[in-house]
C-alpha cells in the first residue's frame, strides 16, 4: 500500500510503530511509504536521467519510448503525474495484480485504464475508493451496488453518491453515522 508522506517524521519511529502495531515492515522511497504486505516494489532504484526527463516533460505521452514503458518503476513514477500513460503499457503488466494494486495505490484514477475484469474485482475497486471515493465511477455496475463499496466511497467522498444508480441520501447518512 502506498501512502504519501507530507511531513518529515522520524522514519525509525514510523518503521517501529508499523512493525509493532501491524507486523509489517516498511520502506521509504522518495516521498512514498511502501508497506510490505501484498504489494512490494521488486527493485527500488533511482530513475535514470532519461526516465526522469520523460516524467518531467510529458507532453506527448504516446511517444514514450517502448523500453521505458516496460519498466515497472518508470511507469509507477509516471502514474503520479500522468495516469493516462497506462494506455501504452504492455498488456502483460496491465494484467499483473501486484502492478495493478501498486498503480491504484499511487493514483486511484488509474482504475479507468484497466480491463473490465479488473474493474469487476472488489479488492481492487475497494482500494481505489478508500483513497478516492469518486474512483467508483470506473467500477463495474455490480460493484456499484455492493454495500461495502458504496460505504467506503461515500465515507471517502460524499459527492461520490452521484455515481450510484440508487443514490439515496439515507445511505449517505447511514454510512457516515456508522463510522
Summarize this, please?
With 179 residues, this protein is mainly α. It is built from eleven helices and three strands.
Q: How would you sum up this structure, described in words?
A:
- By secondary structure, this protein is mostly helical.
- Among the domains are: 56-112, no CATH class; 115-179, no CATH class.
- The chain has 11 helices and 3 strands, in the order E-H-E-E-H-H-H-H-H-H-H-H-H-H.
- A 3-stranded antiparallel sheet has the order 1-3-2.
- Helix 8 packs parallel to helix 10 and helix 10 packs across helix 11.
- The radius of gyration is 18 Å and the shape is elongated.
- Residues 1-9, 28-32 and 35-44 have low confidence and may be disordered.
Write out key terms for the chains shown.
single chain, about 180 residues, mainly alpha, 3-stranded antiparallel beta sheet, 11 helices, about 5% strand, disordered N terminus
**Sheet with most strands: strand arrangement:** 1-3-2
Rounded average pLDDT = 76
How many DSSP H or I helices? 11
Shape: elongated
Low-confidence stretches: 1-9, 28-32, 35-44
- Following the backbone from N to C, one meets helices and strands in this order, namely EHEEHHHHHHHHHH
Strand content: 5-15%
Main beta-sheet annotation: 3 strands, antiparallel
Radius of gyration: 18 Å
Q: Distance N terminus to C terminus?
A: 22 Å
Which structural class fits the helix and strand makeup? mainly alpha
Q: Percentage of helical residues? A: 40-55%
Number of strands: 3
Topology, element by element:
Blueprint: E1 2-4, H1 11-22, E2 26-29, E3 32-35, H2 49-56, H3 66-69, H4 72-79, H5 91-95, H6 97-106, H7 116-119, H8 122-131, H9 141-144, H10 147-156, H11 169-178
Helix pairs in contact: 6-8, 8-10, 10-11
